Amino acid sequence: MNVLMINGSPHEKGCTYTALREVATSLKKQGIESEILWIGKGAIHGCNACGSCKTTGVCIFTEDLVNEASAKAKACDALVLGSPVYYASMNGSMSAFLDRLFRVISKHMALKPGASVVSCRRGGASATFDQLNKYFTISQMPVVSSTYWNSVHGNTPEEVLQDLEGLQVMRNLGSNLAWLLQCIEAGKANGVALPEREKPIATNFIR
Ligand SMILES: Cc1cc2nc3c(=O)[nH]c(=O)nc-3n(C[C@H](O)[C@H](O)[C@H](O)COP(=O)(O)O)c2cc1C
Question: Does the structural domain 2-189 have CATH classification 3.30.310.10?
Fold first, then answer.
């Protein structure tokens, strides 16, 4: 089993990474591999709603890692999103990245567990956590929780390491995710059927 984690921070090894690494260590203890994919520091184009990904399955913008992340997300067993808090929201690059990524992967992620992790200096953590979880809940992804809303506090990785409760929440998140992945495997092995799907209805306005 393999978990893809996306670090949306401009800091490759910053606070968000420190939180994700704690989740990864906990997963590893349960025998589950993970990869932290960093979205980088460069410009990330927002979705321009061209719709071409609907026919091609890939995003037309190729100068960032969205298409690489989408291939990895389709192949993974679970997805963890990590973002720093900017003005009580996820950072702009991560928002642009996820809008384009989910436009491509959403229909491939049904019933794969998802979890969010945020890092802030002081405030806006739970609003950002809610924002990230919205990508899962429109994609039929079970959302994995922990013993608090999944956040760490700090402006530097060293400060995050002093947030003992935050780090424990990350470890518990890793354990809960590992448990759910094992339950899904056991269900598959024992022939638990996937839920039946109705033909999609798209109603763009209320009549
Ligand atoms: C533009 C900007 C806006 C920020 N806004 C907030 C905020 O609203 N609340 C907060 O607690 N921290 C805020 N911060 C601090 C970061 O969220 C915090 O330092 C975070 O842990 C950095 O994670 P990173 O090292 O992974 O980038 C902001 C930082 C920047 C650069």
Answer: no
